[in-house]
Amino acid sequence: MSMRSYQSDVALRMRSLKGANVQEIGNVKYKSNVYPVFSVRTEKGKKLPEVAVFATIHGDEPAGFHASMEFLESEHDYPFNLTFIPCLNPYGFENDKHENADDVNLNRVFNDNSVQEVNIIKKFLNGNKYLFAVSMHEDKPIVGNGVYPNGKNPNGFYMYELCPRKGDIIGNGIIRELKYQGIEICTKPDIEGWKNEGGILWAPRDRMGKTIEQHMIENHTNHVLNPETLTSWDMQKRVSTQKQVLNSSLEKFYKSQ
User: Fold this and answer.
1) Domain holding 248: CATH number?
2) How many folded domains does the chain comprise?
C-alpha cells in the first residue's frame, strides 16, 4: 500500500506553482504506474548564473522535496536562475522507500543510463553548467542499521561539500547560522569513514563514487553541497533546516560574485 500519493502530493502541487516554468522531463514507468518527473525553473535574467537543486533521490528522505516546494511557493529575489528537480525517485517517494521499484539505490548507480530515473535526469542535465548545486539528503541515525557501527551514528546535521580546493568551502558559515538557530550539528569525529570537521565533510572531485553529486562535479559544476538532516527530527525542523541551507548558500554565493 502506498504511503503517499505521488499524483496529489507531488504532481498536483508542481502543476499549481505560480511564476515558474514547470516541465515534465520524462516518465518513470513501473507496471501500470506512470510517474512524471518534473523540473522547475525560475529565471531572473538570461545572463545570470545558473544553480541546480535536487531532492528525494531516496524516497524515504522527503524533507528536501518539501523544502524545495516551500521555497518555490514563496517570494525570493536572488539574482540566479534556479532549476529544481524536487523528486528524483517518484516510486520511492510514494512508497516511503529508499530505493526505486526495482530495489535500486539510485545514488549508487548514477553512471548507469539503463536505470530509467538516471537516464531521464542525465538527459535533462546534458550540456548544462551551474555555478553550484545543492543535493538534499537525509540520514537515519539508527544504531545497527547496517551502515553505522554502534556509537558511530550521526547525532546532528552535517553536510558533504564537494569542491576542488578546501579553501573554497562555504559550509562553515552555513553551520554557524544553523547553530545560531539552535540546530544540532554532528559532533562525531567521522561519518562512514569521512572526517567530520565541525559538521562539514569535504569531498575532493573523485571521492563520491557513482552518485549524482559525483556526476555533477565531473560534468556540470565545480561546487556541490550535500546537506543531511536527521529523520529522527520532526518534519518541520527537517524542512526548515534544508530551506535554511538553500537560502544561506544562495546568499553566500551571491556575496562572492
Assistant:
1) 3.40.630.10
2) 1
Q: What's the pTM value of the predicted model, to 2 decimals? A: 0.95
The HSE-up count of residue 40 (CA atoms within 13 Å, CB side) is 25
| Span 107-122, average pLDDT | 97
- Distance (Å, rounded) from C-alpha 31 to C-alpha 9? 21
Residue 109 backbone class (left: φ over 0; alpha: ψ -120 to 50; beta: rest): alpha
Task: Name the one residue in this structure whose C-alpha cell is 569542491.
Answer: 163
CA–CA dist 153, 134 (Å, integer): 23
Q: Determine the residue type at 124.
A: F
Q: What is the pLDDT of residue 1?
A: 44
Cα–Cα distance measured from residue 65 to residue 94, given in angstroms and rounded to the nearest whole number: 12
- Cβ within 8 Å of residue 35, ≥6 positions away: 6, 27, 28, 29, 90, 91, 94
Cell of 256: 562572492
